[in-house]
Amino acid sequence: MSFQFLRQLFLGCRGISQLTH
Q1: What SS3 string covers 6-17?
Q2: H or E element at residue 4
Q3: What is the pLDDT of residues 1-21, one digit of tens each?
Q4: Using CA atoms, how far apart are residues 3 and 11, in angstroms rounded to an integer?
Protein backbone atom coordinates (compact mmCIF):
# COMPACT_ATOMS: atom_id res chain seq x y z
CA MET A 1 0.00 0.00 0.00
CA SER A 2 1.29 3.42 -0.90
CA PHE A 3 0.81 6.59 1.15
CA GLN A 4 -1.05 8.24 -1.75
CA PHE A 5 -3.54 5.35 -1.85
CA LEU A 6 -4.23 5.60 1.88
CA ARG A 7 -4.60 9.38 1.63
CA GLN A 8 -7.02 9.08 -1.30
CA LEU A 9 -9.03 6.45 0.56
CA PHE A 10 -9.16 8.64 3.67
CA LEU A 11 -10.31 11.65 1.65
CA GLY A 12 -12.89 9.49 -0.11
CA CYS A 13 -14.32 8.26 3.20
CA ARG A 14 -14.50 11.85 4.46
CA GLY A 15 -16.31 12.94 1.31
CA ILE A 16 -18.84 10.10 1.63
CA SER A 17 -19.47 10.88 5.29
CA GLN A 18 -20.07 14.53 4.40
CA LEU A 19 -22.55 13.53 1.70
CA THR A 20 -24.48 11.19 4.00
CA HIS A 21 -24.63 13.75 6.80
Answers
A1: HHHHHHHHHHHH
A2: helix 3-20
A3: 699 999 999 999 999 988 876
A4: 12
